[in-house]
Specification:
Elements lengths: L9 H9 L16 E6 L2 E7 L6 E9 L2 E9 L3 H7 L8 H12 L6 H8 L1
Antiparallel strand pairs: 1-2, 2-3, 3-4
Amino acid sequence: MAPLSQSTPSYYQDGLRMISFCPMCETNYNPMEARVLGEKEDGHLLHIRCKKCWNSILALVLVSNAGVSSVGLITDLTYDDVRKFSRHEAPVTTDDVISVHQLLTDDGEKDFIDAVLEYI
């Protein structure tokens, strides 16, 4: 989805003021560059990337009669990464968990990264 525009409802802008700077380097964000990942009723999931340190936050902005609230999560994921990983794939099975456990605890000769790359 595209960045927010001048016609963006005020509740977006109010919510973005609460998360208006990067928690890592304290650089101010331009709220018009927030990208909408999803919306449901009065909740809006946004991705905002810092132009200085390139860290991002995923922010959930909630709008209600009581006002606007938001919570953010610091991440290094790009907007496209979040979209990719948010797709509903098959659920994680018990076998998946056991396979990862074996991968992490195996004393084999493989390097961990090589083993992960082979697994996926």
